[in-house]
Amino acid sequence: MKRIVFSLSAFCIGCLVFSQNKVQNKIIEQTGTLSVISKNPKTLFDPTPFAFSHATSHEGDGKYVFISGQSGGEDLKHSLSADFRTQVSYSLKNLETVLAEYGLGVKDVLKITILIVDHDQEKLKIWTEEMHKTWGNHTFPASTLIPVPKLALDHMLIEVDAIAFSKK
């Protein structure tokens, strides 16, 4: 009886492994024609020394664009104002700059994540006002706001990342 159970178990495991190999090969074949493209707009600071790209996309029937966290840095030197509203405004402008590299706009953003240092209700009010200015009459994306004690660089008060989609 043990031999039959062992043989049956071995057969089932073999079938499972075989089916998994088929699924993995299919995924490789399907994604083999797709490409990942990274973009770093020349009008934003060079992120490569910090081990990230401003955005990447994956092309197929449509294009997903994954945009790294955009801070409120105002120029190529990534100057940061001490004013929270100014940083919020620039983080959204920087997001629009990256979207434009792909021929996209805020209307194409599906999801954003906002990281705010020492979040409070006043900062939420400012964020909401600046989002309304930037998004205008477009539908707002899904959103997650995460309060944090600190971000990657000293004096960064906000960081916004996004996922956008464009139909070919």
Automatic annotation (TrEMBL):
CDD domains to which the protein is assigned, alphabetical: YjgF_YER057c_UK114_family
Lineage, top ranks: Bacteria, Pseudomonadati, Bacteroidota, Flavobacteriia, Flavobacteriales
Protein name: RidA family protein
UniProt xrefs under PANTHER family: 2-IMINOBUTANOATE/2-IMINOPROPANOATE DEAMINASE RIDA, PROTEIN HMF1-RELATED
Entries under Pfam families matching the protein: Ribonuc_L-PSP
Superkingdom per UniProt: Bacteria
Organism of this sequence: Chryseobacterium herbae
Family, as annotated: Belongs to the RutC family.
